[in-house]
């Protein structure tokens, strides 16, 4: 590496850039688009989405409930659980949580599911693309450009070299900052 740094041309920037394509990064990118961000970029160092939930083979979507019969996670968290089991779950989703199960039925089973990590990675990519999120695989965020305390660009590196991507907002969902 000769230290050469390409700059992405103005207009090629993003309203929101999300670093990290695990479940948190997927949720952040979806939330940004749905909240009205025009251009959203998700940057992932691996070549598949999902992080530990897919590439790490931790293929259980942990409980969305408190163990006392109350659901505590809704919205995108529940949407991603249902996406993960769209084509079948290794365990059936508990009936008590799929409809209007009585609270006493819900205390006997947790709202969780085991899923196929490969299928989930593909479905998550399809969902993000359908929502208009751009994906950049095999890429590391290695530095930032700032104006005062504000991040104005992410410096990324991949097999194409090093470049800077102009951004208006950044979400760090890498898990290691």
Shape summary: elongated
Secondary-structure element sequence?
EEHEEHHHEHEEEE
- Percent range for β-strand residues: 25-35%
Distance, first to last CA = 24 Å
The largest β sheet comes out as: 7 strands, mixed
Please tally the β strands and state the result: 9
Keyword list:
two-stranded antiparallel ribbon; 5 helices; 7-stranded mixed β-sheet; 25% helix; 177 residues; elongated; 9 strands; alpha/beta
Overview of this protein structure:
Helix content is 25%, strand content 28%. The chain is α/β, with parallel strands linked by helices and 177 residues long. Strands 1, 2, 3, 6, 7, 8 and 9 form a seven-stranded mixed beta sheet that branches. Strands 4-5 form a two-stranded antiparallel ribbon. Strand 2 (14-19), helix 1 (23-34) and strand 3 (40-43) form a beta-alpha-beta unit.
Short characterization:
This protein is an alpha/beta fold. Helices cover 25% and strands 28% of the residues.
SSE order and pairing:
Elements: E1 6-7, E2 14-19, H1 23-34, E3 40-43, E4 60-61, H2 75-84, H3 95-98, H4 103-106, E5 113-114, H5 117-130, E6 133-136, E7 140-147, E8 150-158, E9 161-172
Parallel strand pairs: 1-9, 2-3, 2-9, 3-6
Antiparallel strand pairs: 4-5, 7-8, 8-9
